[in-house]
Amino acid sequence: MRQKKVYDEKLVRSIVKEVLDKLSVAPKAFPGKIPVGLSNRHLHLSQRDLEILFGKEAKLTNLRNLSQPGQFAANETVTLVGPKGRMERVRILGPVRKETQVEISRTDSYILGIKPPVRISGDIKDSGGIKIIGHKGEIDLREGVIIAQRHIHMSPDEARGFGVKDGDSVKVKVSGKRALIFDNVMIRSGPTHRLDFHIDIDEANAAELSQGDLVELIKE
Amino acid sequence: MRQKKVYDEKLVRSIVKEVLDKLSVAPKAFPGKIPVGLSNRHLHLSQRDLEILFGKEAKLTNLRNLSQPGQFAANETVTLVGPKGRMERVRILGPVRKETQVEISRTDSYILGIKPPVRISGDIKDSGGIKIIGHKGEIDLREGVIIAQRHIHMSPDEARGFGVKDGDSVKVKVSGKRALIFDNVMIRSGPTHRLDFHIDIDEANAAELSQGDLVELIKE
Q: Which class in CATH covers the domain with range B32-37+150-219?
């Protein structure tokens, strides 16, 4: 004689929902490995500076979308001119921002003849200056040139999966012939962020990394 | 009444010598930190290739001594020509070697348009090729272009101090804003080696290292 089982339907639904939620976010929340996104030299412009460089009411036009939702590489480019050299066709990334910011590598800085600091994006106080030339005008940028500090973008779900939060500093392990462990890697997490480990070309070359290669997060 | 002590004079001399030896090598054998030596692009030439590039019975002349005893930067330079670009005034290091070897960075390789492997110096089988132009002639080098694998030179005394030996692989810890730990760092030890951590410009830029900065050896 079998005993009839009594289920609390509300509890069952709740458990099923919990399991389905976990299953569906699992690949995103616990991805284990993080894809590499290489940042070549680029700049972000304020609307004011965009109009000085490209004319009244100028707008950035989308060449291709970037990994972070809403961000794009624009068709528009500029020339950077430093005391020692110049770099042509430097890509503008959109959309426009509150402040103009130029991100280059240490290698670029030697070519241009400037010595910008390594900074997290947005932290431009007392950073480097540069001349920017567009199709319609030019700017002598007083500050805003940085070498971007390496960082990992991730959604809040992904951050929970890794057990980290926005602003944390972590390590990133790279395998291969030029294996190394990057320290001081900042977590940048928010609803509009997508999993991506951002480094510049110098860092990629030092570790023999290419776009899309997978690396491993290590907590402090 | 004191007992007269009897010393074995030979034993005493041997002990004193041992102690003095230990004392005198102590600062070199346990230096703790290792100075950084930056390698910019350069090449080593065989006598045969030197004569093709600079004429019959050509000799390298010393511009300045390098950190490794007997090694020097020569006054003589060459031009490297790859499928995509060229690099002028590339320094030759002396003395001449058995085989010609060109050492560049990954950044250089993109400019030249070649894809050489990361290798320990001397391991040039199936490495990259390049055209080399000197004052008197040129060479189409079939193989010999590498990206040098990072390594630490040290004397046998220093190796004993660190508890490592020639051919070992260790880690190197770098502090600062771009702190990281280099893995796969090879120990190169012998009587003519002097303590120096050799990296290329990409690696220096990725870690914000300059010539003479101090780094820390970590054993596996």
A: mainly beta
